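The data layer described in this paper is built around a simple, fixed record for each protein. We quote a single record here, exactly as it is kept in our systems:
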Amino acid sequence: MDAVDRLCSRYLLFLYLLISGSVHQTVSIGVGINYGQIANDLPSPTRVASLLRSINISRIKLYDADQNVLSAFLNSNVEFIIGIGNEIVGSMMDVTKAQAWLQQYVEPYIPNARITCITVGNEVYSSNDTTLMANLLPAMQSVYQALVSIGLDKQIKIDSVYSAIKAMGHTDVDVRISETGWPSKGDPSEFGATPENAAAYNGNLLQRISMNQGTPLMPSVPIDIHVFALFNENLKPGPTSERNYGLFYPDGTPVYNIGLKTGHLLGISNSPASNHV
């Protein structure tokens, strides 16, 4: 899915958030955030841990099972979603290999790291990879069986493809939005990618999370949401917007104001965001 498609797919949610209320002046809530690392200028995981503690971020989604990150958050109250990359989804159809992956990347951190969910694959149905699509459900089933075999199935949940499950007639599945956000900068053709729109989208999103509100269809059922993303990532391929979804610059200063508590990175004095270009 290219950046223009991403923007279009989020347009209705943007309008809903925009008209649903103004941004709180100070937001300090148990919000989730995506922690991507496709960059060469990011702070160490230990310093990221200090930043997230300072702004009360309590849930993190990784796109892998980075051992340095998990180690930096040992014995904290942060909940982690970790990911099985697309490149190994096929091998995860083998329960033995799925169990070996869990024993290497998950078991050593339990219970000192709060790993609560494992995603299998990323943006699978927008990849045009028919083999990956076919392997996804068997891999999810295999990973779940592996969790059962090592006694972690009650503690860790394998991420649901909600629309597909609903189409099969199942309506009692929790909805989890693993990533949603808005870019603060884009190419000339990406008209909506501005700091003002990003601030409106993410600010009102955080407000709705803080109010425990759900969707228009089920307003009384709060949704587990992870904001995309923690940092701008300067090595991501694609149009300019792909590198500008972050709430923060790599030095820990905010890209725009959305009412989060002022955060800080250990060893760095925050400078105004206007210094960044």
About this structure: The helical segments are 3-9, 11-19, 45-54, 67-72, 95-105, 130-149, 162-167, 195-210.
